[in-house]
Amino acid sequence: MQPYSLLYDLKPTGTRYNLPMISTPPVLSTRNSFGDGNGDDTSILSVNSFFSNIASLGSSISALSRDLTQINSFLSGEATGDLFERSHVEKAKFFQFPTDTDTYTITFPLLNTVKNPNGTEPLWKKNYKFIMLFCMKNMIFRKDNVAYYPPLFYDLIIPGTIRLPYTYVESVDVQPLGMVRILSSGDKLFEFANANISIPVPEAWMVTIKFKSLIATSANLVLSSFADTPITT
User: Fold this and answer.
1) Model pTM?
2) Which residue among 15, 95, 154, 222 has its CA within the 20 to 30 Å range from the CA of 230?
3) How many domains does the chain have?
4) Using the 8-state DSSP alphabet, how is residue 3 labeled?
């Protein structure tokens, strides 16, 4: 994972989520493409660009030489064959580095009707706090009329499948299921909230989270899902 260590300068928050993948588990797949362009570096100094330019130059010189020979033969009365004969110089095709990245979707329910042991916080409160805090962490936070903090990045690990060290939450969708009741928090839920809040609580919330990678999939990421190697920045 060393090639990725300097991409982003991040600081850990110390928070770890263990999310159940109730939805269809992801199947690792790959898509490759080769083309005439360099696909990775448009610099004139790149090796691919150098050889591509040489091949194009050779093709142009070959075509010019052929045309001059045919014109000379025609003018001297010795023209033979097809004056419109064509030639093609085969050029190497280069790997096209992917510009789009993979998205992984996780869907799971949060049940609000499960009984809790006496003296513990009701489950619906824990579920509500998770939803609210997780959504706020993945929004921008304005410092003033110019500057803001961006949403958080995540190190997403799907055991035995892939590891994506730099992902962000593309979307969070929370759908209420069942009958909705208005419940009172009874005490202070958050440090920034009032002591008592009225909250519409359904029988369950269905949560869908989409994680999108910031880097293209490589064999390094697949191997890291088995080794669970940490990223050091």
Assistant:
1) 0.72
2) 95
3) 2
4) G
